Each structure stands twice: as C-alpha cells, then as structure tokens.
C-alpha cells in the first residue's frame, strides 16, 4: 500500500520520505560571524540593526529568521572585541 501511495505522490511531482522532515541547510561562510562583525565595525559606530544589515550586505550568508538577535548576543558575548558606545550603539575595540 505504501508503494502505491508513493507512486501516486511521485506522479504528482513530489517525493515522500517517511519520518524525515526537510530541514534548513546551514550556510557556510568564509569567515565567522565574529570576524565579519569586527571587520564591519572597524572605525564605525552602528546600532545592532545597522550592524546586522551591514554584515549581510558584506556577504555573510544566514538563514536565521532572527539574525539581529544573534548579532546582539554576539556583541554581548565578546566584550574584549566589541565596545558599547551608548544604548544600542557599538564599535570594535
């Protein structure tokens, strides 16, 4: 019965794989997010949103729907690399 159903599904142009959901493919970048952020912030002061957009514009690829949040967490996680200038504005050290 399963073979018949899979044959019908394939005739419609789709494939059926039982028990495996198609997941996101993780993007591969030439440099880490930390390195990309440090390079973009070098000599400038940006908000978290501006930094997230600038990092992506510089070629960093992400599939995250919450990339701004990841950038914000990275800024907080690496206080030796990034300096908070004022509320929501950061630069590199």
Walk me through this protein's architecture.
It is rod-shaped, with a radius of gyration of 21 Å. It is an alpha+beta fold and 93 residues long. The chain has 4 helices and 3 strands, in the order H-H-E-H-H-E-E. Strands 1-3-2 form a 3-stranded antiparallel beta sheet. It has helices at 2-11, 33-41, 48-57, 67-77; strands at 46-47, 82-86, 89-92.
Mean pLDDT: 85
Which range does the strand content fall in?
A: 5-15%
Number of strands: 3
Taking pLDDT < 50 over at least 5 consecutive residues as the criterion, the unreliable ranges are none
Please trace the helix and strand order, writing H or E for each element.
HHEHHEE
Shape: rod-shaped
Taking the alpha carbons of the first and last residues, their distance comes to: 64 Å
Give a concise summary.
The protein is an alpha+beta fold and 93 residues long. It has helices at residues 2-11, 33-41, 48-57, 67-77; strands at residues 46-47, 82-86, 89-92.
């Amino acid at each position: 019965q399963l073979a018949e159903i899979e044959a019908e599904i394939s005739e419609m142009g789709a494939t059926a794989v039982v028990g495996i959901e198609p997941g996101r493919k993780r993007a591969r970048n030439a440099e880490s997010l930390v390195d990309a952020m440090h390079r973009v912030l070098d000599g400038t002061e940006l908000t978290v949103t501006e930094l997230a957009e600038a990092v992506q514009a510089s070629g960093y690829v992400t599939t995250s729907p919450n990339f701004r949040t990841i950038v914000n967490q990275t800024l907080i996680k690496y206080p030796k690399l990034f300096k908070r200038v004022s509320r929501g504005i950061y630069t590199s050290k």
